[in-house]
Amino acid sequence: MILIDSGPLVAMADSADQYHRECLAASRTVSYPVGTVWPVLTEVMYFLSGLPRAQEAVWDMIARGSVEILALGPEDAPRIRELMQKYAALPMDLADAALVRVAEREGTRDIFTIDKKDFSVYRLHGKLRARVIP
After folding, report:
1. 34, 56, 67, 74: which could join 61 in a potential S-S bond, CB 3.0 to 4.6 Å?
2. What is the rounded CA–CA span in Å between residue 34 and residue 68?
3. Nearest to residue 57, comparing CAs of 4, 8, 13, 11?
């Protein structure tokens, strides 16, 4: 499984985004399944709030099964909180913490993100660096 952050979703849906071409090209090389979490989708819809067609493009990705929404439950909350506390100096937002938590839970290190700076600092299980795509 590859986890996708808000940046590539926004970029792929918005042709005017500076990362649009790079993320589309990278998405063609990604093996599936691709998953994300609700906090990421909340960010995406906020960033695309003035672009209803782009929002629809994201919903279409989900409807087609190109992007799967992964569940977060109460058992994930303590680790998400711990991650946000640990990386408060960056700061780590809820979406990033949720992705790191799900990566740990699902046993993947692959994160599709344009946020290379922060994801190069985060550690899965306190020691493993994520593999950042692209």
Report:
1. 67
2. 6
3. 13
Per the confidence metrics, is the pTM higher than 0.70?
A: yes
Give the CATH number, domain containing residue 82: 3.40.50.1010
Contacting residues for 46 by C-beta, under 8 A, at least 6 apart:
none
Q: How many domains does the chain divide into? A: 1
Q: What is the rounded distance in angstroms from the CA atom of residue 28 to the CA atom of residue 37?
A: 21
- Alpha helices for 1-134 (secondary structure H): 6-13, 20-29, 38-47, 52-64, 77-86, 94-106, 116-119
Range of the domain at 80: 2-133
The answer, yes or no, to whether the previous bond of 52 is cis (omega within 30 of 0) is: no
* Alpha carbon of residue 5 to chain centroid: 2
